[in-house]
Amino acid sequence: MSIALLQMAESRLAGHRPSRKWLKGIMKRAAVALILQLREGELGVLMIRRSDREGDPWSGQMAFPGGRKEPDDESDLETARRETEEEIGLHLGAQEPCIGALSELNAINSRFRGLVISPYVFHLERSVNFHPNHEVAEVVWVPLEFLLDTDNREEMVWERNGIKLRMPCYFYEERRIWGLSLRMLDELMDVVAGKSPGRKRWRRF
């Protein structure tokens, strides 16, 4: 099953046409890496739990390695590779091909409004030892089959400016996956499953 999932991911991502932001050229930019690996017969996607840091709007949250684009980065793809190496010590070279891209997203945190995030998907085959920097509390492999099982999907309440919204999420071994990271995963799961990607709706109280 997991080998078939990987093959479907590679095949369908190759033909996937992610949406792009029209104003990307004048907006601040960032990129992240979604890394797939077969581990003991199970296909997983690598996630990080960000360190608890004052002033970080995503402090303590589950995310993907990545960050802001630097002037010396030739492309968003290079940003994803550089940030992955800086954050978890994993060099994504020729052995780890980028097998596709997902739709660009706008960061919704007020501090980074106007930041467009480009997600890239990689296939990692070799065994590696991670060396997280101060921004990363831990590295976690989340099984794709867990994410594809709709029975594992839950709801959470998110409140901002007095408005409460019911939002989708997953709890994987007591780690909550939600927000931008979940939107990226939802698109990846839709592509793998052969569905038309569509944003999961949030419901107001």
Automatic annotation (TrEMBL):
SUPFAM superfamilies: Nudix. Residues 54-85 are annotated as: Disordered. Signal peptide: none annotated. It comes from the Bacteria. Pfam families: NUDIX. Residues 27-165 form the Nudix hydrolase domain. InterPro entries: CoAse, NUDIX_hydrolase-like_dom_sf, NUDIX_hydrolase_dom. One of its GO terms (molecular function) is coenzyme A diphosphatase activity. This is ADP-ribose pyrophosphatase. It comes from Congregibacter litoralis KT71.
